[in-house]
Design goal:
Elements (H helix, E strand, L loop, with lengths): L1 E4 L2 E3 L14 E9 L10 E4 L5 E3 L5 E8 L1 E8 L6 E7 L4 E3 L2 E2 L17 H14 L9 E3 L5 E4 L5 E5 L3 E5 L4 E13 L2 E12 L5 H15 L3 H9 L8 E6 L6 E2 L5 E2 L6 E3 L5 E3 L5 E4 L4 E10 L2 H5 L10 E7 L5 E4 L11 E3 L1 H5 L20
Parallel strand pairs: 3-9, 3-10
Antiparallel strand pairs: 1-2, 1-16, 2-26, 3-6, 4-5, 4-7, 7-8, 11-14, 12-13, 13-15, 14-15, 15-16, 17-20, 17-23, 18-19, 21-22, 22-25, 23-24, 24-26
Length: 376
């Protein structure tokens, strides 16, 4: 889910560092049926924002193996049915049974006939793409390959999009194909929001040179991300990994701009230690992220990109360290030792670099740079 008020607000969550061995991996299995109890075939069953997914067989059965322990969101989706999900905390390396019953969905599509000459629809598609995919360098190499499944509507400053099938997104910047199950997309004059879950699949590079480019860009997408930050906090490596943490009183919240810019007030900003925002949980395999108000996260190993600077309301010629502001709108949130929150939407990001990087800069949760595997 992504919610933006006066600036993109990203709500993100994390996954495992790498696939664990059998001693730390679980199996999830179950059956998907309709409201009459009849099994449904060809239902997509996957772990949100990961590369782990499958489909049900003719008996409605599915099995996902080799799933690392910890928290995850298990999603089921099929065209013609309402999607469903469940948030799980896998604490033991065993078989988990998770059945689903899903209901039929009625799509209320508009009367627009999509053709290459439909200028209004094309303009709406361009607007949707800019907001949803983003405007970063990776976004320039990302395309929705089946835009015809999108239908747009709205009036009075409201703009809505819905998809009657999953969006297929090809990201040649990072080398991934995304199957995105879009549930909601709404923009209003002062806010944007969308909800949905992606399933990642690596693309095949056309050459060794392209493979090397993808590897470098994936590393860049990871470094400085919220996933990178939270893993640094959990492993007490905030300084080593290049992060600085600052508290911000609620009255000094950033002034926000819908295009991704933020005019930050630096006064009354106080440095924090990792130990001041994380504490032990009720179990040995969990921690609690807990802080009041807003905090700034500054990544000192990388400057803002020129593309980011061009989006600022008051353009700056000199880049600064990448900075974002986050808040716990739902209060303290439980995370496992891999950095996965029990509530995937428990951490809200207000603006800055995390709002600028959108779907085109998203990475599967399994990913870690090769030199970080031992650290995390």
């Amino acid at each position: 889910m992504l919610i933006l008020k006066h600036l993109p607000v990203c709500i993100l969550f994390l996954f495992s560092a790498h696939l664990a061995g059998a001693q730390t991996a679980a199996t999830i299995t179950g059956t998907v049926t309709d409201t009459t109890g009849m099994p449904i075939a060809d239902v997509n069953v996957f772990i949100a924002s990961s590369m782990a997914g499958t489909t049900t067989n003719n008996d409605g059965n599915y099995t996902l193996r080799g799933i690392p322990l910890g928290t995850l969101r298990l999603v089921v989706s099929r065209t013609g049915y309402e999607p469903s999900h469940v948030d799980l905390f896998l604490r033991e390396a065993r078989v988990y049974i998770q059945d689903f019953q899903i209901t039929e969905k009625i799509y209320e599509l508009g009367s627009v006939t999509v053709t290459s000459n439909n200028r209004r629809w094309q303009r709406q598609l361009e607007r949707f793409t800019e907001i949803f995919i983003g405007v970063s360098p990776n976004a320039q190499q990302t395309v929705i390959t089946n835009p015809e499944v999108l239908d747009f509507s709205g009036r009075g400053g409201e703009f809505r999009a819905q998809a009657n099938e999953p969006l297929v997104i090809e990201n040649r910047g990072l080398g991934y194909k995304l199957t995105y199950f879009l549930e909601e997309f709404v923009t209003e004059p002062n806010s944007w929001r969308w909800d949905g879950e992606p399933l990642f699949e690596p693309l095949n590079p056309s050459s060794p040179e392209e493979a090397a480019q993808w590897s470098a860009r994936r590393d860049s997408a990871f470094y400085g991300s919220f996933r990178h930050f939270l893993l640094a906090v959990l492993n007490d490596q905030v300084d080593e990994q290049g992060f600085k943490i600052y508290s911000k009183p609620g009255s000094n919240q950033r002034m926000i701009d819908p295009r991704g810019g933020a005019a930050a007030r630096q006064e009354n900003r106080f440095p924090l230690k990792a130990s001041e925002i994380i504490r032990p949980g009720e179990n040995d395999d969990e921690r609690i992220l807990d802080f009041k108000g807003y905090i700034d996260i500054v990544y000192t190993h990388e400057l803002e990109s020129q593309a980011y600077l061009q989006l600022q309301r008051r353009g700056r010629s000199r880049p600064r360290y990448q900075t974002s502001t986050i808040r716990l709108d739902r209060g303290p949130t439980v995370v496992d030792l891999k950095g996965d929150p029990l509530d995937p939407y428990g951490v809200t990001f207000y603006g800055g670099y995390f709002g600028y990087e959108r779907t085109a800069d998203a990475m599967p949760k399994e990913f870690r740079p090769w030199n970080q595997v031992d650290n995390f």
